[in-house]
């Protein structure tokens, strides 16, 4: 829940910052974000991402 809230507040926050704020390791944050994406709770806007690259 905390990861979702952080991403909602700042969608540009990267895994390392989320790990720092939640006091979890980067791999743990990455796994949890992947589970959230796979379950449909978190969706990535590819158009927005490609706009920056």
TrEMBL record:
Protein name: HTH asnC-type domain-containing protein
Source organism of this protein record: marine sediment metagenome
Species classification: unclassified sequences, metagenomes, ecological metagenomes
